[in-house]
Amino acid sequence: MLLLAGALGSATGARGEPLNIYVGQGQMPFADGVARRAGLFGELMHELCARTAQQCIFRSVPWRRVLSEAEGDPHGIVLNLGRTPEREAGFVWLLDVLPTPYVLVSLDHPFDTLADALQAGPVAVMGGTPRADEINRIRTGDQRVVEVTDPQQAAQLLQSGRVVAWYEIDLRALYLWREMDAKPPLQLGKPLSSTRSHIAGSLKLEGAQALSQQMNTAFAEMHRDGSWQRILARYLGLDRSRALLSDGW
User: Fold this and answer.
1) Contact predicate 165/106, CB 8 Å
2) Per-residue pLDDT tens digits for 172-227
3) What is this structure's pTM?
4) How many CB atoms within 10 Å of residue 155?
5) Is 60 left (phi over 0), alpha (psi -120 to 50) or beta?
6) 3-state secondary structure labels for all residues of 15-75
């Protein structure tokens, strides 16, 4: 486990024991402990720790280990966790941050169903995810699903024409395409499903209710003073960030 950042805030100003912030690797633009930038959730959490005078220790962990490590930690917090029925009772949901629609992205024309994309050609998806399980369940005959270990691999496969579509969170696909300066613009199909991504805590987290209230107050302040839009714009561009905020973000 890699210690990414020291405690934020003074010891006298911090409330209780330091929080252990578990950052899953390879989660950009949301968070990534080994990336050159902290991501949307990473920068947000740094700001929240400072505004609530809470000491925070950021720990980079492979995504497959994040939940197991955080669950048993009385000071554990997970960044960018989708609130799904399967996870509902397993965590304390501290802060609702943003929607995460899952879509098919492509180059020539949009796909609104997995079946249509599979019929057109190979489809890329992140291996080991519920998305991979979903698309493999409906694959038939010689239809191909290409499972990758890094989302950027899927973006490169799509850019090179080796797959016809990529099943991913819309903001992640748009972010990686922008980072690659790839052309042409992505075509996005209709959302196949959607959840809300949260900052969540272990069920053993001490003082969770008070911390959630403090974080929600600080996040509302960030909306008012423009801090949240500036974070969004760094990763998604000014136009996209304004559009998202106008939709109620």
Assistant:
1) yes
2) 999 999 889 999 999 999 999 988 999 999 999 989 999 999 999 999 999 999 99
3) 0.80
4) 24
5) beta
6) CCCCEEEEEECCECCCECCCCCCCHHHHHHHHHHHHHCCCCEEEEEECHHHHHHHHHCCCC
